[in-house]
Design goal:
266 residues, alpha/beta, binds NADP nicotinamide-adenine-dinucleotide phosphate
């Protein structure tokens, strides 16, 4: 199946909270769940998926390979462990979560292992996350742009990542916007708030609709059923070109996720 344009994120969700969030999301109609090895909740995501009654072919599941598992000899065994925890035979999408810190493992080595995982039927598609343009070039050189389903990057009204988006688009690589609500910050924005008030929508819906209008996939997360429901309804919200231009003007290069092992953003 193709990647649905709105997915439910699971970063930070642990134990029962992870189970409940994924169960609520699936019950409300989400058909795309985003997890990662480092989130420590693949087993809970798997439990919620199994209990949901949603047919396997109807839900798109993504995981991400942690930096310690990027070596050619480690990636596939770690992916098999993820599959075991998730109670799945195959992922829909498997991403390199972060480029190898300090370039320890060459991009080409990890991409080749991902391609082999796909050949073995462990994942239907492969991709990258937190890749800059130079790193995307390396990945493309290794396996070709047609084999890279997405680059998942931080993207919201305060960090619009225009160069990365334009490069990915030119290569035919979809962009997935993580932290699309700027971790809740958009809720307090006066420009977004005014658009939301005029449209009878929530600020979260306006921020999500803006990303969707740019052609990006979004993966907001919530512990609240009501927020999960209203975020999914952002699919039906249409912003005007004037609204989109106003939100375009909010870019301030504000990066919220910048660990010490992050690549040089450029
Ligand atoms: N690839 C990567 O390196 C990477 C990094 C970070 C995140 N991600 C992925 O992206 C997903 C989303 O990022 P995120 O969870 O960090 O941030 P986010 O989705 O931008 O924001 C989540 C925050 O917004 C609140 N919220 C959600 N919907 C709301 C609504 N309708 N109204 C008011 N508040 C709302 C949530 O609180 P409540 O729980 O109270 O609703 C939570 O505090 C993650 O879960 C993860 O799957 C990937």
């Amino acid at each position: 199946m193709n990647m649905p344009s709105i997915g439910a994120g699971t970063f930070r969700l642990q134990g029962q909270q992870a189970i409940d969030s994924v169960a609520n999301a699936l019950d409300l109609g989400y058909r795309h769940i985003d997890t990662a090895q480092i989130y420590g909740n693949e087993a809970e995501v798997g439990q919620a998926l199994a209990a949901s009654g949603v047919a396997r072919g109807e839900v798109f599941v993504t995981t991400k390979i942690w930096t310690e598992h990027l070596g050619g000899d480690k990636l596939i065994p770690s992916l098999k462990e993820s599959l075991h925890k998730l109670r799945l035979d195959a992922l829909d999408l498997t991403l390199i979560h972060w480029p190898s810190p300090g370039g320890m493992v060459p991009v080409a080595e990890s991409m080749a292992a991902l391609l082999e995982a796909r050949r073995l039927g462990l994942t239907r598609a492969i991709g990258v996350s937190n890749f800059t343009i130079p790193l995307m070039r390396e990945a493309i050189e290794a396996v070709g742009a047609a084999n890279i389903a997405t680059n998942q990057v931080e993207l919201h009204p305060y960090l619009q990542n225009r160069e990365v988006a334009a490069f990915a688009q030119a290569q035919g690589i979809a962009l997935t916007a993580y932290m699309p609500l700027a971790y809740g910050k958009v809720m307090h924005d006066p420009v977004i708030g005014a658009i939301a008030a005029r449209l009878g929508a929530s600020p979260a819906q306006v921020a999500l609709s803006w990303s969707l209008a740019k052609g990006h996939t979004v993966i907001p997360s919530s512990t609240q059923r009501a927020n999960l429901a209203s975020n999914l309804a952002a699919r039906d919200l249409m912003l005007t070109p004037v609204d989109i231009a106003a939100i375009d003007g909010l870019d301030r290069g504000e990066r919220l996720v910048d660990p010490d092992f992050a690549p040089a953003w450029g």
